[in-house]
Each structure stands twice: as C-alpha cells, then as structure tokens.
Specification:
Mean pLDDT: 87
Low-confidence stretches: none
Order of helices and strands: HHEEE
Distance between the termini: 68 Å
Helix content: 40-55%
Oligomer: single chain
Number of helices: 2
Number of domains: 1
Strand content: 15-25%
Largest sheet: 3 strands, antiparallel
Shape: rod-shaped
Structural class: alpha+beta
C-alpha cells in the first residue's frame, strides 16, 4: 500500500521541484537582465556604449541589447530567452529596460 502511494506521490514532488527551480531560474535571468540594462545605459550616457555592451554580454549572456537616444535620455532594452529546466516547456522571454540622462557634453547613441 505504501509503495503505491509513494509511486504516485514521488513524480508529483519531482514536478513541483522542477517548477520551483524553473521559477528561480527566471527570477535570476530577470535580475541579470536588469543589471545588464543598467550598466549599458550608464556607459552609453557617459558616451561609451561599447563598454556597456561588453558588460551586458558578461552579465546576461545570450541577450540582445538595444540602445537608443530619446532627447536628453538614453534608453537600453535587454531581451533574453530563458530555457526552463523541463525541456518540453517553452522558453520564457525576459525583458528589462533602463533609462539614464545623457551626461553633459557627451554624445550618446
């Protein structure tokens, strides 16, 4: 009797663990994307977007970086796909956006 209950309950526990680990992975990717966006926009506001892109590649590997200037502000958007622990689940899209004022006397993208 106990063996049958364990055989039914154990896969459910493994599935719950996989969902929990996947949620942590998405949360980690979100924080990394936000950190990368912040670093990119800071560097671009200082007039050094190449350094920002290098830092973004280190902080959020595989992310796409879009830096634009809107008036006196620089906007950085990071887009990243996160593949969950269970390979049969679809990838989750994580986006982060940061805005900074352009430093006086600097040219930003």
């Amino acid at each position: 009797m106990v063996t049958a209950e364990l055989a039914v309950g154990l896969p459910v526990l493994v599935l719950l663990l996989a969902v929990a680990v996947s949620a942590v992975m998405v949360g980690d990717a979100r924080v990394r994307a936000q950190d990368a966006a912040r670093e990119v926009v800071r560097a671009a506001a200082r007039g050094d977007p190449a350094t920002g892109r290098r830092l973004a590649a280190e902080l959020a590997p595989g992310a796409t970086v879009d830096v634009t200037r809107q008036g006196a502000e620089v906007v950085a958007v990071i887009h990243r796909q996160v593949h969950l622990l269970a390979s049969w689940l679809p990838a989750v899209s994580v986006d982060a956006r940061a805005v900074a004022a352009v430093e006086p006397g600097e040219e930003a993208p």
